[in-house]
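=== RUN LOG ===
request id: a7f3
mode: sequence -> structure
chains: 1
length: 789
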Amino acid sequence: MKSGRLEMTVQSRRFAWSLLLSFFLGGTLHAEMKNARHPFLLWTREELVEIRQRVRSDPQAQKQVDQMLQLETRGPKSGGNPSMLNLFKFAVLDDKDAGRIEKDALLQFIGTTVPGSKAGNPNTLNAPWREDHTLDALRYDVLYDELTDGQRRQIEQTARSFIDWCVANPGPWEIGDPGKGLKPGVRCGWLPNMQWPTMAGAHVLAAAIKDEVEIRKVFGCNGGWKWYFDNYIADGRFYMEEFAKYSSNIGSMILWCNALDRLGLNQYGWGYTGAGGATMRRFLGCLIDASLPEIPRGDGAWNIPVIWMGDAGRTWVVQGDSLTNSRWSQARMQGAIGKMLQPLWWEAGQQRFPEAGFDYFVAQYHAPGETVVLPTLYFGLRPIDSTRVKAPPAASYITADRGFAMLRSEESPAYWKSPKPAVALQFGMRYVHYIHDCFSILDFVAYNRLIYDKVGNFGTHGYAGGDFWRDHGRGQASAVVVDDLQVQPVDSGEEGCKNERIRSRLDGPAKFAAVRAKGAFEPSAGDVDLERALVLTADYLVDATWLVGEREHVYDWHVQSRGAIPAIQNSGWRPVAEFSDGKIRQQSLAREHLGGARAQDARADTWNATILLQPTEAPANDPDAIGVSVRMLGEEGTVLISGRPPGLDANLGVKLMATRTARRTCFVAVHEPLKGGVQASRIEQFRRFGKPSDGLAIKIVGKTGTGIDDRVLLLNGNRVGAAATFADEGESFTLSDQAWLRISSDRVDVWGDLKSIRLKVTGIPHLIVNGAEKPVKIANGVLFWSSEL
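=== RESULT ===
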C-alpha cells in the first residue's frame, strides 16, 4: 500500500510537470510521441536488418566493417572508440561477447550520481558538468532486450536523477566562472566544451528512456536545448567559443535529434528554430561555413582548414584520410567518454540531409589514389565515390553577431579547390578564449596555401595561456598594434558588435568589408579611433587601416607568414640600430623578440616586399613557388622591419612590420598572391590619388595582358554618407561610401555606390554598374555618367 502511494506521488509529479511544460513551451510544440522500439538512437530495427543483409551479401559493406574493426579498436585518445565498436559488433555482427562487455559497463551506471552534486558550488573544477552519459544512453538503447525489467527500471531511475539534477542546479551558463573572468548570465561567460556535457548527455538519456515528460523537461530547462538555441548560438549557426572547442557536444546533439525524429518529436530536435534563427542543421554546418579552401596535405591529398580563432589552435573540416583521421577524441576538459569528430558529423549530416552536400566532405577522407571512400556504418551510409560528389557553394558573409567577415573571391561549388584568394577579418567582439585578435586578419589563403596565418610563440604550443606573443595582436596573421598594447574587444559578445560600425558589399567581384571602433586600446591609448577595410578580388587584397588619435602614438602594422623574403630582395636592409632616432623605439624590438631583425626606410611613394612560402635558398623564380607581393603606400617617418617571429626555425616564418609615430595615419597595402616566384607579380602600378583627407582612392594597373586596370575608392570615418570626389589625370569619381572599378577597352565594370564618373576611354565601352548596363555620354574620348541622369 505504501509503495502504491509512492508510485501515485511520482505519477502526480510527472503529470504536473507535463502541464507546466505544456504551459511554458506552448501547445504548438506538443505532439503525440511515437512508441519507437529499441534500438532507435543510432539505428532503428529496420535499419539494422538492412545493414546486416548488406554486410552478409555486399563485399563493399564488408570492407566498411573491416575498416571499422581496424580503426575503432584504438582508444578515443588515438581516434577510435572500442565501446562503440562493441555495440556495433553486437547489433550488426551478433557478437554476444562484445554485448556482455558493454552490458557490464552499463550496469555500472545504475546508482551513479553527478560528482559534487550533493554539496558545494556545482561549477567547482567543472567536474559535475563533464559527466556525459551519452554512451550509457546508447548502451541502454542497443542492449535493451538483454536487460531484465528490474535493470531497466534502475537505469531509467538513474537517468531521471541526472535530468532532475540538471534541471535543479544553476549551471555555469547562469552563474559564470568569476575565477576565469567569466560573468554570470551571459553567453560568453561559460565554456560549453566542458560545462555542457552533463546537460547534453541528459538530453540523450531522456530520449533513450522514451519518457516524453523528461524529454520536454530537459529541453525546456534553464541551460537546456531551447535555451542553447535561443540564447547561445550566434547568427543562427555559430559556436561562441573558439571553433576548435566545437567538438565536445555535437555528437550527443546529433543523437538527440535523430532519436526525437524517430519518436515523432522532431520539433524538439532537428525541427526546432531558436529565437535568433538557430537550427541544428545550421549549427552542424558552422565549421564548413567558416572554412577556407583546400590546402595540400603533402601526400597528394587535401585538408580543409577552418579559420583560426582563439587559443586552442586550428581545427579542420577535413584532416587526414580514411585510415589516418580520427573519428573520436577524448580530452579531460570534455569528460570521460570519446566524442564524435568531423568524419562522423558529416556522415550524420549526409544521412539526415542527403541533398545538402555533406557527402562531399565525407568523400574528402580518401588516401592518395583512392576514389571510393568507406564511411562507418554508424549512420548506415554506403561507400561514396569521391569523383561523383557535388560540393556545396560557399558564399561570402558578414556576421555582426559572431564578430567576423568571411570574404571569398570564388563563391561557387568550385570554392573548395579554387586557387582564388579568401580572407577572414576579425571584428572587435569578445568570444570565449579570444587571443587579442580584434581587427586582425585571421587567415589569408590563395593558390591553396595559407599565405598569412598565426606564426610563432614564446614557450607554449597549443594554448596561448598568456603567451605574450600569441596572446597579443603582434602574434596574429595581420594586425595593427598601438603603443605595443594588447588590443581589447569593444563589445562583450552578448549583443553582437553594437559598438562598432560595420560596412560591407558582397554582391560583386570585389568583396568589401570594413569595421570601425574607438577604445580598442584602452586605457592608455583609448583615444585612438581605428577603422580597417578590406577589398578582395580574384587578383589581390586591398587592406586599408585608418588610425586617428588625440596625441601621438606608435603604430605598428604587420603581416606574418610561414615563408621568407628571398635573397634576391636583400638589398636596402640595414641594422635596426641605424633607425634609433625616436621615430621607432629600438626597445620595442626587444619586446617583439624578432630574430634577425633588419630595417629599411619606407618613406618613398610605395615600398614592395615579396614573401615566398619556401626556404630562402630556393630559386626566386621557381615556377611552383607560391607567395605574396606586399606593396604599401609610403609615409614620412615610416620604417619597414622584417624578422623571424619567436620559436621558429630560420626558414619557417617571417614578420613584415611597418612602424610610424604619428597622431593620425593610414596604412594602405595591396597583397598580391603569386605563383612563380618574385617575377610572377602581375601588378605594375599602385598609387594613391585625390585628397587623403577625403578617404582613399588608389589606382592599380597590371602588366600588359593581365586585364588589371582598377580603381579602389573608400571613404572612412565621418566622411561616409557625404559625397566626396576624387580626381586624377583627367578622370574623377564621386561617391559617398565605397566603389571598385575595372576598366577595359570594351566595358567598364563598377560595383559600389558611385554617383558620377568622368573617365578617359578608348572606343565606346559599355558601362555596367552593379550588374546593370547604364546609358553614358562619350565625347572626345571621355566617358561621362551620373546616377541622376
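=== NOTES ===
The mean pLDDT is 89.
The chain has 18 helices and 33 strands.
=== END ===
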